[in-house]
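User: Sequence in, structure out. Go.
Assistant: Echoing your sequence, followed by the structure tokens.
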Amino acid sequence: MMQIYFLSIALNFFVGLILIRDSLIKEDEKKVIEKKDSVIKIIVSVLAILTGILKLLNVIPGDIYVIGDLFPSLAGIVGGAALMFSYFVENTSVEIVPGQFLEKLFIKGKKYLGIACIIISILHFLFPKVILI
């Protein structure tokens, strides 16, 4: 379905932009921006996760099942999870202590995860039927 294909590309790109922007904003500026962005973050993260799951189930005709759309769907799922995790860390009163792996991926590696989401979305847009892109 081409609608899922387009949503996957667009949401991966937006997730990447939000993750990069979040990692570059200074702590004192985050307080002002967080209130405005919290709704956008949760909506984009839920849509990216759902689109990533649907992308695993629905591939482009003529493409190899699962493998052909593996990276775009994983980028949507992991990028959406990172956005959702950062939303809950910022908006909860309970202290969340993530494990070492989650801290490396979702907190310290937020910028690199955003760059990967953008690169995967651009490559998937340019080369729709290439295996593993």
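User: And one key feature?
Assistant: Residues 57 and 73 are 10 Å apart (CA to CA).
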